[in-house]
Design a protein that fits this description.
The complex is a heterotrimer of chains A (110), B (101) and C (135). Chain A has 110 residues and is mainly α. Chain A is built from 5 helices and 2 strands. Classes of the chains: A mainly alpha (110), B alpha/beta (101), C alpha/beta (135).
């Protein structure tokens, strides 16, 4: 299902991930979150921005385990646990946050 | 006019480059593509394949050289980098293409 | 009792020309969830997988060379490279990417887990592994 962001129609795959990572603009996350009935806060954006930086550096979406550890290191130990991340992204931090960030589904994530 | 010989295998894995050189005529254009571009790098155990070949002109496909992290100064002197348009020019300028896989 | 096994991934193919290198990398990334002791070995054209400076912008391929640099985060402890294979290709460890490893709890860290080893060491490392996966 294509999504419409800032007046542009962007292709997605059958699971709702952006077909082309280069299409991403912050509005993508807002539109996708709205469809999920979620209001994005600064805490969500911390994770989305982290994911985009990680992808930029390593060219993959991190496994949840790696994401959790890395977030703990970067944003503080209280945030580096799956409870905190699932609180923000109830459909799963790997899947949902990566989708909002325009990344492909994490390798090994089912 | 001679033929264009393309080689797409690493010279460390297969003897495609050695054979293309051995079984090509004088004036041949030998274009290294995909893993074949490793044969165009300096300082390797197999560089004499290219440096020792006489009467042949070597080319390497730029996109494949770049993808493999090979800097231009690591290429054997005399090997000419070509882009996809240059590949097409070579095809047009030669009698036919022989692919050595 | 711990039943941690020593897994060794043996890589002998160049990246990009064939699918082997990417497949191996994906298996390592997925397998990291299983808490085993994981090492990678690069021999023959496999050493090309770690050559830095890859730029795939002009080819229709994903550049996965940077991905190796996160393997420390996936629990990979050692990335061994065959010295002879490097030398035969006119390469040194300076031409290779560096991979950092850190234990997030103890904060113990290693700046670079990529290490050149000789044939004798390789034979021993492979022999002492519980499982060897070849790509």
């Amino acid at each position: 299902m294509p999504i419409e962001v800032d007046g542009k129609v962007l292709e997605t795959d059958e699971e709702g991930y952006l077909a082309n990572i280069n299409d991403w603009v912050p509005g993508v996350a807002d539109v996708m979150a709205k469809e999920d009935g979620l209001e994005l806060t600064d805490e969500h954006w911390d994770i989305i921005n982290f994911l985009r930086e990680y992808y930029e550096e390593y060219q993959i979406a991190p496994a949840v385990r790696v994401l959790t550890k890395a977030v703990g290191k970067k944003l503080g130990k209280d945030k580096g646990n799956s409870k905190y991340l699932y609180g923000l992204f109830p459909y799963g931090p790997g899947k949902q946050a990566c989708r909002y960030a325009g990344l492909p589904k994490p390798t090994g994530c089912v | 006019m001679a033929d264009l010989y393309t080689v797409n295998k690493s010279p460390f894995e297969k003897n495609s480059l050695a054979d293309a050189i051995k079984f090509s005529t004088d004036g041949a254009a030998i274009l290294l593509i995909e893993d074949g571009v490793y044969g165009a790098t300096k300082g390797t155990a197999v560089e004499s394949l290219v440096t020792g070949a006489s009467g042949k002109k070597f080319y390497a496909l730029k996109a494949d050289v770049k993808a493999r992290g090979i800097a231009e100064d690591r290429l054997i002197d005399g090997v000419e980098l070509v882009d996809y348009a240059g590949f097409v020019d070579l095809v047009e300028a030669t009698d036919k293409v022989q692919a050595w896989l | 009792m711990s039943d941690v096994k020593k897994f060794m991934y043996l890589n002998r193919r160049a990246p990009y020309g064939t699918i082997y290198a990417w497949e191996s990398l994906e298996v390592v990334l997925i397998g990291a969830a299983f808490d085993q002791e994981v090492s990678l070995m690069f021999i023959d054209d496999g050493v090309y997988q770690l050559v830095k400076g890859s730029d795939t912008s002009e080819s229709d391929m994903k550049n996965f060379t940077p991905t190796y640099r996160t393997l420390g985060d996936y629990g990979v402890r050692h990335m061994y490279v065959d010295k002879e294979s490097l030398e035969a290709r006119g390469l040194t460890t300076d031409d290779l990417i560096e991979v950092e490893w850190e234990d997030w709890e103890t904060e113990e860290s290693v700046d670079n887990i990529v290490e050149a080893v000789d044939a004798g060491q390789i034979a021993e490392l492979l022999a002492e592994s519980d499982v060897v996966f070849s790509f």
